[in-house]
Design a protein that fits this description.
about 100 residues; Translation Initiation Factor IF3; 4-stranded mixed sheet; 2 helices; about 40% strand; elongated
């Protein structure tokens, strides 16, 4: 599966537009990590457990997008973007979305 943030894929021609697809996840850290991150927030610096959580969430959301597009018959996704939002303190939603297409 080719996934790009651009509207076209250099050297490829879009033969069919299947449509907008998305994949998402909501993830949180456990209470121990939340306490550690809260303390880190008081003194400043990177909250590594949350950085890792968000990276994992982006990977899960992207894979779900790819799986949906593949199931719909696409071999590429153009215009891919990530969107994040906070659901509750310590839990974030990540959505990957884009247009599923068939390219040659």
């Amino acid at each position: 599966m080719i996934v790009v943030t651009t509207e076209q894929i250099q050297g490829k021609e879009i033969k069919q537009v299947i449509g907008v697809m998305s994949g998402g996840t909501v993830q949180s850290k456990n209470i121990g990590k939340d306490i550690g991150a809260g303390l880190k927030g008081l003194v400043g610096g990177e909250m590594k457990s949350y950085t890792q959580m968000m990276e994992e969430a982006r990977n899960v959301a992207l894979q779900r997008l790819i799986d949906k597009a593949s199931d719909a018959g696409a071999n590429a996704i153009v215009g891919m973007r990530f969107m994040t939002s906070s659901i509750i303190q310590g839990a974030s939603e990540v959505i990957a979305y884009g247009t599923a297409v068939v390219v040659e």
